[in-house]
Amino acid sequence: MNMKDLQIFHTVANCGSINQAAKQLNYVQSNVTSRIKKLEQSLNTILFHRHQKGITLTNEGHAMLPYAKKILSLVEEMKMISSDSENPTGKLDIASVETVIKLPYILSRYLDKYDLVDLTLSTGVTAELKEKVMNYELDGAFVTKSEITNDPNLHQMEVFHEKLVLISNNTDMSMEDIIEKPILRFSDGCGYRQKLNEWLHDQQIIPKKVMELGTLETTLGSVISGLGVAYVPYAAVEEYVKQHLIHCYELPEKYSHITTVFIYRQTDHHTPALKKFIDTIEEVTEFHI
């Protein structure tokens, strides 16, 4: 077994196709096939089912994929540690819950100073992003602080403090009217959804209708059109409030105050790219937020 075989296995698993993996790796298809077979022989197990429609991971392949990701990530970290710590290069995979409105301050400052780093940004909900950080799929993530993030294997640094508000498009509605409307919420694992659920539970309120929407943009548009109500950070709707498109209702502090944290793995060494990103967070939160 060698690193290249693991890289090929990881790429084929992600692509779900030997042909697509070969194109991505700039290899001939037969080379990819032979390297996969060689890896299977060295592990004494079958990693992929071959069938007419292509390939799919076996149970053993699914079980081994996280280990391949971890090994490849550690090798990349080892390479990065020996690089120029003041002028980092390489990849940095970051993610964020969708509603971190002030995130561009951090990203723009970082990319201005360290333009040789290949930074990628994706989105998701807190529970999902935490697992991706733990499984070496992400270098770090901005998530909502909660019991989910209190993990001894993670560092978490506080970044932003925000207030959540219930929003509707009608200024004349009472709280009793509000809770009669359909609730538009984010995916399971979202910290905002968890806070609202806690309030509903404590008030013994059972929503009449709940709709799960995928993005903040869709949620806000749906609220403005009168489809329902939602629970979001005030910073995300401040401009809509000024335009009288959205009206806010505040819940007690216990349910409305949240903290966004940046999480990353506990380890003795971090890549220069990640170290500089952490430094940038500290600079921006201290002087600009």
How does this model look, in words?
It is a single chain. This protein folds into 3 domains: 3-79, Orthogonal Bundle (Arc Repressor Mutant, subunit A); 87-160 and 259-287, 3-Layer(aba) Sandwich (D-Maltodextrin-Binding Protein, domain 2), CATH 3.40.190; 162-258, 3-Layer(aba) Sandwich (D-Maltodextrin-Binding Protein, domain 2). Helix content is 45%, strand content 22%. The protein has 12 helices and 11 strands. The strands form 2 sheets. Strands 3, 4, 5, 6, 7, 8, 9, 10 and 11 form a 9-stranded mixed sheet that branches. Helix 5 (103-113) links the parallel strand 3 (90-96) and strand 4. The protein is globular, with a radius of gyration of 23 Å. 33% of the residues are buried.
Short description:
The protein is built from twelve helices and eleven strands. β3, α5 (103-113) and β4 (117-123) form a beta-alpha-beta unit.
Topology:
Layout: H1 3-15, H2 18-25, H3 29-43, E1 48-51, E2 54-57, H4 59-81, E3 90-96, H5 103-113, E4 117-123, H6 126-134, E5 140-144, E6 154-168, H7 175-178, E7 183-185, H8 191-202, E8 210-212, H9 216-224, E9 229-233, H10 238-242, E10 247-249, H11 253-256, E11 257-265, H12 272-287
Parallel strand pairs: 3-4, 3-5, 7-8, 7-9
Antiparallel strand pairs: 1-2, 5-11, 6-9, 6-10, 6-11
Q: Shape from CA axes?
A: globular
Series of secondary-structure elements, N-terminal to C-terminal: HHHEEHEHEHEEHEHEHEHEHEH
- CATH architectural designation of the largest domain: 3-Layer(aba) Sandwich
CATH class of the largest domain: Alpha Beta
> What composes the largest sheet?
9 strands, mixed
CATH third-level topology of the largest domain: D-Maltodextrin-Binding Protein, domain 2
Strand content: 15-25%
Question: How many domains in all?
Answer: 3
Number of helices: 12
Q: Say which CATH homologous superfamily of the largest domain is assigned.
A: Periplasmic binding protein-like II
Radius of gyration: 23 Å
